[in-house]
Amino acid sequence: MPEQSRPWVTIRSNTLMAEIDPQGAQLSTLRDGTLDLLWDGNPALWTGRAPILFPIVGALVGGSYRLGTETYHLSRHGFARGKAFSIVNTTPSSALFRLSVDDATLQAYPFHFELDVQFAIDDATLSVTTTVRNKGNEPMPASVGYHPGFRWPLPYGQPRASHFIEFEADEPEPVRRIGTDGLLTATPQPTPVAGRRLALADSLFKDDVLIFDRLKSRAVTYGSDAGPGLRVSFPDAPYLGVWTKPGAPFICIEPWHGITDPQGFTGDFKDKPGVFVVAAGESLSTTMDIALLKG
Question: What is the arithmetic mean of pLDDT over 70-95?
Fold first, then answer.
């Protein structure tokens, strides 16, 4: 069977069911009973559902980066979302996927890495933990990010216009935007968050993604004032992106451990904003929890 058509892995609790595609270790279904909470990847709008971003988040200036005296090429959001992960183990409520270095990854990213993505459901919460492991002998720079796209509106009968994202803390700092080149523009913009609430409207996304790069919150809630909603927690992510295509029936809430290049960036990859460095033989883990709120 071709790698691209391997069966999805199903995990569940009494409340939630999730399916993960080994291609990209991508969460591809998240369901409350018969109700789909996750975007379905309609290729007419956006083929993604909840891709894992690695070893970069966003775009690079000119599609390339410099590491010492060498130059390497990586497409937007890196290669992990297009690679076949191995299935390390599964239980009825959990699954662990792994991507390891190969000849193709070494051409774009010259490090001996292991990327584990662990999914686990406990009652009404899906936890996703991504571990970046340095199997080599030199410090390894990297970024990793989550990119889940949720239904907008959620399938609980409330109108699209009533939906919002509410931050757990005040977020008065300016937000960042990207240009048509996908790179971070120099001038911050006033935050559209009012009273910790971001009222969702297509007009917010005419200039693409909203980026919160001075984030105080460790979680947000998404939904409407009536009906169930979702809580997305990100205890260790320093950045948050919020994105859709105007008019599309999804909203992406994206905890990032990395960020797109600023326009004009010419530094070494190790100095790229948002990049972390994993020491030889060490690892770094980052977690996102998605909880269904019915109370």
Answer: 97
Dig out the tokens for 173 from the structure.
Answer: 């700092």
pLDDT, average across residues 82-90: 98
Q: Where residue 227 falls among pLDDT bands split at 50, 70, 90?
A: confident
Q: Provide the CA 258 distance to its chain's centre, in angstroms.
A: 10
2 band by pLDDT with thresholds 50, 70 and 90: very low
- Among 147, 188, 193, which residue's Cα sits nearest to residue 288? 147
Determine how many CB atoms are found less than 10 A away from the CB of residue 281. 10
Output b/e per residue, 4-15; b: 16+ Cβ within 10 A.
eeeeebebebeb
Fill in the amino acid letter for 198. L
How far is Cα 82 from Cα 204, in angstroms, rounded to an integer? 29
- Cα four-point dihedral sign 80, 81, 82, 83: positive
Predicted structure pTM score: 0.96
SS3 at position 166: strand
Query: Which strand (E) or helix (H) includes residue 107?
Result: helix 103-108
Q: Which two tokens stand for residue 222?
A: 């998404």
pLDDT tens per residue across span 35-51 = 999 999 999 999 999 99
Closest listed residue to residue 173, CA positions, set 203, 144, 211: 211
pLDDT confidence tier of residue 1, bands split at 50, 70 and 90 = very low
**pLDDT at position 6, please?**
84
CA distance 140 to 137: 9
Give the integer Cα–Cα distance in Å for 12 and 231.
18
| CA–CA gap between residue 132 and residue 116 (Å, rounded) | 7
